[in-house]
Specification:
about 325 residues; alpha+beta; five-stranded mixed sheet; four-stranded antiparallel sheet; 6 helices; about 15% helix; globular; disulfide bond; growth factor; glycoprotein
Length: about 325
């Protein structure tokens, strides 16, 4: 993490870097301005999975912090995916706006803010457009909260993006399918396809319609299908942590001891990834968050010289998968 120690002169003027942020003191102005200064950011070269978290996570974060991380993937043909830990909590918004304590995601190349979050609602997954992404955290001098935030980052192959200057209807089927598959809600799909009339299209989706059946006309009222829920079910249950039994001797690679019980249940990623990424031919369910948990078991070891068995309770630590994600392993993509 990177702490900004920013001196403020007596004659300094206050100007927040965004119109909806509160700049109510010289120290806060300096904090907000410093969070926008590229020279204060910490550059993280991303070659494998990792995390960025608020100080003291999952406990109360300190006051008056401005932390900036810029994540850079080694390959320009690679994107960076950010997944927020389910434990998320910053100071609550005011009038629906994160004015005081917040975490913010920015596209460095374009300078566009992908999102700013606070409160207790966990943000959704974010994917960079290029091979860089910036994370910014600001807390003021009042009301620190807990647990703060923890962001898991991982690399994903760069997918073909449609030309934004060309109407979606003119894209090829492959390009359009890839673009649509990246949206998480049906509303986002409609906004992309028809930005000027997407709300009308949403209404038309669920209007009752007449259906011809043979020579008769029926009028079955169209039920409102929750398409977002269907997509979310696939995300939640296709590739998930599941109970697996593992042999302790095999898992720990111990041939000098006997354990009882000899097998234990652990959480490991399982399931399929049929809709991982369009065009990916080798998509695998892989762990996105791994923890080590301790289990107390009986251990039996032969004493030297044939003096019987040494019996003791011992702690063994086993790998558990807490979160899973579908990862494209096809090296030919990109």
């Amino acid at each position: 993490s990177l702490l900004l120690g920013l001196p403020v002169s007596a004659g300094a003027t206050c100007r927040p870097f965004a119109p909806d942020l509160v700049c109510d003191s010289l120290s806060r102005c300096a904090l907000l301005e410093g969070a926008r200064d590229p020279k204060h950011e910490k550059v993280v070269r991303v070659s494998t999975d990792g995390t960025v978290k608020s100080p003291d996570f999952p406990h109360t974060y300190p006051r008056n912090k401005a932390l900036v991380w810029r994540l850079i993937a080694a390959s320009e043909n690679t994107q960076i995916r950010l997944t927020f830990d389910e434990r998320f909590g910053l100071e609550e918004p005011e009038d629906g706006i994160c004015k005081y304590d917040f975490v913010e995601i920015e596209e460095p190349a374009e300078g566009t803010i992908l999102g700013r979050w606070c409160g207790s609602q966990r943000p959704g997954r974010q994917v960079s457009k290029g091979n860089q992404i910036r994370i910014r955290f600001v807390s003021d001098q009042y009301l620190p909260s807990k647990p703060g935030f923890c962001i898991h980052y991982s690399l994903v192959p760069h997918t073909e993006k449609p030309d934004l200057c060309v109407p979606p209807s003119l894209h090829s089927v492959d390009v359009l399918t890839a673009a649509v598959s990246g949206f998480s809600t049906v509303e986002d799909v409609m906004k992309y396809l028809e930005p000027d009339r997407w709300q009308l299209d949403m209404e038309n989706l669920y209007k009752p319609t007449w259906h011809a059946l043979g020579k008769t006309f029926l009028h079955p009222k169209k039920s409102r299908v929750d398409l977002n829920a269907l997509k979310e079910e696939v995300r939640l249950y296709s590739c998930t942590p599941r109970n697996f039994s593992v042999s302790l001797r095999e898992e720990l690679r111990r041939t000098d001891a006997i354990f009882w019980p000899g097998c234990l249940l652990v959480k490991r990623c399982g399931g399929n990834c049929a809709c991982c990424a369009y065009g990916c031919h080798d998509c695998q369910c892989a762990p996105a968050k791994v923890t080590k948990k301790y289990h107390e078991v009986l251990q039996l070891k032969l004493r030297s010289g044939g003096r019987g068995l040494q019996k003791s309770l011992t702690d063994v630590h086993l790998e558990h998968h807490e979160e899973c994600a579908c990862i494209c392993k096809d090296s030919s993509r990109g």
